[in-house]
Automatic annotation (TrEMBL):
<feature type="domain" description="Thioredoxin">
    <location>
        <begin position="1"/>
        <end position="131"/>
    </location>
</feature>
<keyword id="KW-0802">TPR repeat</keyword>
<dbReference type="GO" id="GO:0006950">
    <property type="term" value="P:response to stress"/>
</dbReference>
<dbReference type="InterPro" id="IPR011990">
    <property type="entry name" value="TPR-like_helical_dom_sf"/>
</dbReference>
<dbReference type="InterPro" id="IPR013766">
    <property type="entry name" value="Thioredoxin_domain"/>
</dbReference>
<dbReference type="InterPro" id="IPR036249">
    <property type="entry name" value="Thioredoxin-like_sf"/>
</dbReference>
<keyword id="KW-1015">Disulfide bond</keyword>
<dbReference type="InterPro" id="IPR019734">
    <property type="entry name" value="TPR_rpt"/>
</dbReference>
<dbReference type="Pfam" id="PF13414">
    <property type="entry name" value="TPR_11"/>
</dbReference>
<dbReference type="Pfam" id="PF00085">
    <property type="entry name" value="Thioredoxin"/>
</dbReference>
<protein>
    <submittedName>
        <fullName>Thioredoxin-like protein</fullName>
    </submittedName>
</protein>
<feature type="repeat" description="TPR">
    <location>
        <begin position="145"/>
        <end position="178"/>
    </location>
</feature>
């Protein structure tokens, strides 16, 4: 299985811009993803620029969903960029965001400017404007769908997983394009399988539920490719597919290789989850990724 990470190229580390073409290319990409762009206009001879550069790099590492650019105001290719923004002192930091009415190729708007090597000021403007991990819309297409989702959530909390699956299925019929609903149902299938009760009490039934879990997790990543939690659901489904119980229908001589491929797919799904997530989801994905790496080392 081949999973392609959707993590924005360059995010997490400053990007050196040396031409107008590079500048325009990165900005178009940032606008298309609704990402914030922070720019450090600096000069090689500027000592304050050198002093604050590590702070800028550290902030970029802390905010992986924001584009951090560096522009040398004395560079032949980048001098027109500094002129466009009337940069007269170094360092100068600007924050650019795509306006709500803009399109993917439209111009961004400078929403804040900071002059001077001010670590506290720079940290403040970055934290105020930084982009966060993508989360899909939670609003469904009808009030009836919302009610079915809420019922599913309530049943899930009560560990009534079979009933929760039914409620989520009703919601999906009313709102079939919701990645959140497919993720919820995939998780309900997962917990139902682990419970080994209420219709998951035999190996044959659990195998069928794993197929449904996999279908839902694939649907989530198809609909919401940039959602880290969706990739966690995919990883859970792949791990279940690699379970010994699920592999019994595979010819014995092919089981080891088949399980290894499933674990490799799980590894890639979790790498996507880590790249696209933050907070609790990111931490859970990292923990699961370490466990999968150990399983892969044993199977190699």
């Amino acid at each position: 299985m081949d999973f392609t990470s959707s993590k924005p190229v360059g995010c997490g580390t400053p990007i050196e811009i040396s031409s107008v073409a590079e500048w325009n290319s990165v900005l178009r990409l940032a606008y298309s993803q609704n990402k914030t762009v922070v720019v450090d206009f600096h000069a090689s001879w500027c000592q304050p620029c050198k002093a604050i550069a590590p702070v800028y790099t550290n902030l970029a590492a802390q905010q992986p969903f924001t584009y951090f650019l560096r522009v040398d105001v004395d560079g032949n290719g980048s001098r027109p960029i500094a002129g466009k923004y009337s940069i007269s002192a170094m360092p100068t930091f600007i924050v650019i965001k795509r306006p709500p009415e803009g399109d993917e190729t439209g111009k961004g708007k400078v929403v804040e400017t900071l002059q001077g090597a001010d670590p506290h000021g720079l940290t403040r403007i970055v934290n105020n404007h930084a982009s966060r991990a993508y989360a899909p819309p939670s609003t469904l297409q009808s009030r009836e769908a919302e009610k079915s989702k809420d019922l599913g959530n309530d049943l899930f909390r009560k560990r009534q997983y079979a009933a929760a699956v039914d409620a989520y299925s009703n919601a999906i019929e009313l709102s079939p394009n919701s990645g959140v609903l497919y993720a919820n149902r995939a998780l309900a299938y997962y917990k139902w399988i682990l419970s080994k009760r209420d219709g998951a009490d035999t190996p044959e039934k659990r195998v069928l539920l794993r197929v449904k879990q996999m279908v839902d997790s694939q649907k989530v990543t198809d609909i919401e490719e940039r959602w880290g939690k969706g990739w966690v659901r995919m990883a859970e489904a792949l791990l279940e597919a690699a379970d010994e119980e699920s592999m019994e229908s595979v010819a014995e001589e092919q089981r080891a290789e088949g399980r290894k491929k499933l674990l490799e797919g799980t590894n890639e799904a979790l790498m996507n989850a880590v790249d696209l997530s933050e907070g609790k989801t990111k931490a859970e994905a990292q923990t699961l990724l370490e466990n999968v790496k150990k399983l892969l080392s044993v199977s190699s």
